[in-house]
Design brief:
This protein has about 170 residues and is of the alpha+beta class. The chain has helices spanning about 30-35, 80-95, 145-155, 160-165; strands at about 10-15, 20-25, 40-45, 50-55, 70, 70-75, 100-110, 115-125, 135-140. It has a single domain (about 10-165), classed as Nucleoside Triphosphate Pyrophosphohydrolase (Alpha-Beta Complex). It is about 20% helix and about 35% strand. The strands form 3 sheets. It has a 4-stranded mixed sheet. β7 (about 100-110) and β8 (about 115-125) form a beta hairpin. The longest helix is centred in the middle third of the chain and has 13 residues, at about 80-95. The chain is globular.
């Protein structure tokens, strides 16, 4: 999602307290610069055969560029509900509309790069996928063993490893 100036850094984001109440609204650039706690969503996409769609983030991403990820997702925009953000992110990143989505859980993640309250979801979709927003460099379908192999050899975004991975039921 892009802000009124057409730049992702101009996107407006709600800063939230530990009880997930909005305390102010800032630009995405300010949120990143000051590592302000915000809302985020992650959506794990499974094929009907149980494999998980993983992807490598574009090198131009503002946080964790070039790392592998377990899910589509991103920052919840100001005034947006979590479920709506999840649907938007699936459409933007993968070009899909997935209904239903299953809510998996919520948690907090903080490291030197981000502070967020995140909600995780999953859906089943076999494709096709459209990667038009430039945020994804490469995708793979992996089974549980393939995911473990990738996790052992590649760098993955830490929030989804910490928050989403324990919620996934890999077959």
């Amino acid at each position: 999602m892009q802000g009124s100036a057409g730049e992702p850094s101009a996107e407006l984001v709600d800063v939230v307290d530990d009880d997930d109440r909005v305390v102010r609204t800032v630009t995405r650039a300010e949120m990143r610069a000051h590592r302000l706690q915000h809302r985020a969503v992650s959506i794990a996409v499974f094929g009907s055969d149980g494999r998980l769609l993983v992807h490598r983030r574009a090198d131009t991403k503002d946080v964790w560029p070039g790392m592998w990820d377990l899910a589509a997702g991103g920052v919840v925009a100001t005034g947006e509900e979590y479920d709506d953000a999840a649907r938007r992110e699936l459409a933007e990143e993968l070009g899909i509309e997935a209904n239903p989505m299953e809510y998996l859980g919520e948690g907090r993640f903080t490291d030197e790069d981000v502070a967020l309250i995140g909600r995780g979801y999953s859906c089943v979709h076999d494709g096709p996928f459209t990667f038009t927003d430039g945020e994804i460099a490469e995708v793979r379908w992996v089974d549980a063993a393939g995911l473990q192999s990738l996790l052992a050899t590649e760098r993955f975004v830490p929030d989804n490893v910490a928050l989403l991975l324990p919620l996934l039921h890999l077959r």
